[in-house]
Amino acid sequence: xxxxxxxxxxxxxxxxxxxxxxxxxxxxxxxxxxxxxxxxxxxxxxxxxxxxxxxxxxxxxxxxxxxxxxxxxxxxxxxxxxxxxxxxxxxxxxxxxxxxxxxxxxxxxxxxxxxxxxxxxxxxxxxxxxxxxxxxxxxxxx
Length: 142
Hints:
It holds the Pfam family Response_reg. This protein is of the alpha/beta class. It contains 5 helices and 5 strands, in the order E-H-E-H-E-H-E-H-E-H.
C-alpha cells in the first residue's frame, strides 16, 4: 500500500523536485505551496503523513502544525527546515510533530520516517475504530 503524503512548502522548485522523488519511491503525493492550499488539501483528503516546511511567508510551520493537530490530531507531521533551531524543534515536538528534519533532507531517511508515520497512524485509527465499536456495543446492550 502506497503512502499518501501531503507535502507543504512555499519553494515551488523544491516542492516539485521532492514530490517527484517521493513519487518515484511509490508514494502518492499531493502538494501545496501556501497555507490556504494546504488547509484545502487537508480538508479534502486523507493522508498518512504531512511533510511541512517550517518557514513559509504566509504562515509558519508551527502555526500550521497547530491548525493540523486541532482538526486532525491523529495526523503525523514531519517538519522540514533550512534554518533549524533547537528551540523550534522542541516547540514542534511539544505540539505533536512526529519528527523534525533539516533541508536538504536525505530522501531515504525521509522515506523511512514517512513509512513509520503511516504505521503509527494506522495503529491510532485502529484503536479509535475499536473504541467506537466497543462504545456502540455497550450503548446498544448487545
